[in-house]
Amino acid sequence: MKNQSFIRKLGYALSGFIYAVKQEHNMRRHLVAALLAIWVFAWAQPAAIWWALISLCIALVWAAELINSSLEALIDHLHPQIHPQIKHVKDMLAAMVLVLSIAAVIIGLLALYSCL
Ligand SMILES: Nc1ncnc2c1ncn2[C@@H]1O[C@H](COP(=O)(O)OP(=O)(O)OP(=O)(O)O)[C@@H](O)[C@H]1O
To answer: Could you identify the atom of ligand 1 that is nearest to the CA of residue 93?
Structure first.
């Protein structure tokens, strides 16, 4: 499976993204939140730097959710039983998404404030 063409690798990445959107309701929530943010920004028209920052935030939150979902799926496959350490790992993964989501909301609000 090594050294495959770029187009084929892009196909794998897209199929991973589509799988996550179909399987994970949190991923769908992040997608809706991102579309909503883009719509509000298109109306408010902040400076280009804010567009860059919010695009980075959207990408970081999606990436964190993809890491969270893929590790959860792997953990559940390898160890389906309840275990206190798995609880800590899953809670930390959820915290990663939460921290980035809070940063995204703060940056979004600051961007809107800059338009006043
Ligand atoms: N195998 C386990 N052992 C111990 N605690 C678990 C285990 N699986 C889940 N938990 C606890 O339940 C919480 C929710 O886990 P779950 O796998 O449902 O994550 P989720 O992100 O809410 O999933 P979903 O995407 O299905 O909503 C975890 O954060 C953890 O505290």
So the answer is: 29
Instruction: Say whether domain 6-114 belongs to CATH 1.10.10.60.
Output: no
Residue 65 CA, ligand 1 centroid: distance in Å: 14
ipTM, interface predicted TM-score of the complex: 0.91
Long-range contacts of 30-38 (CB under 8 A, 24+ apart): 30/61, 30/62, 30/65, 30/101, 31/62, 33/61, 34/58, 34/61, 34/62, 37/104, 37/108
Tell me: the pLDDT tens digits for 23-50?
Answer: 999 999 999 999 999 999 999 999 999 9
Residue 78, ligand 1, Cβ within 6 A: no
| Domain extent listing, the chain | 6-114
